[in-house]
Design a protein that fits this description.
It is a single chain. The protein has about 140 residues and is an alpha+beta fold. It folds into 2 domains: about 1-60; about 75-135, no CATH class. About 45% of the residues lie in helices and about 25% in strands. It contains 3 helices and 6 strands; from the N terminus they run H-H-E-E-E-E-H-E-E. It has a 6-stranded mixed β-sheet with strand order 3-4-2-1-6-5. The longest helix has about 35 residues, at about 30-60. The two termini are about 25 Å apart.
Length: about 140
């Protein structure tokens, strides 16, 4: 999923660059400059997203998935309120071995509230009570 985001972002960067390069100079010079600036802005936004996704991939690859620590840290799998969460990178819900797992960035508000906690701890997010059942 993360690799798809990177590939899509790189394609968007390339498309935006090609659009900027193909802007033909018209009799209205301002229109040419505006179109080129818009294409460059789109390319820069895509480049930022690609960079952020590559950083997330690097962080994901650094995680050791053999954690034995029962305190929630980046790389932990957590069962809370009957749902599985993996604190790694922001991918959303994925299906793994017929189980739905919510893959959270450690910067996500839900992950921030989980970090440092252990099984049996509780916390509230958006008026919803969460109970940490198990930390894997």
């Amino acid at each position: 999923m993360l690799l798809v985001r990177i590939a899509d972002g790189e394609k968007a960067m390339q498309d935006a660059q090609e659009a900027a390069n193909s802007e033909g100079k018209s009799s209205m010079g301002d229109k040419y400059e505006t179109g080129r600036a818009m294409s460059q802005l789109a390319r820069d936004m895509s480049a930022k997203q690609v960079f952020e996704n590559k950083q997330e991939l690097i962080n994901l690859l650094k995680l050791e998935n053999t954690k034995t620590d029962k305190t929630i840290i980046q790389g932990s799998v957590v069962m809370a309120n009957g749902k599985l969460f993996y604190i790694a990178v922001g991918l959303g819900v994925i299906n793994f071995n017929n189980l739905n797992v919510t893959v959270l960035s450690p910067k996500a508000p839900l992950a921030q509230l989980m970090l440092g906690k252990t099984a049996g701890n509780q916390f509230t997010l958006n008026n919803k009570e969460f109970v940490i059942e198990t930390v894997y």
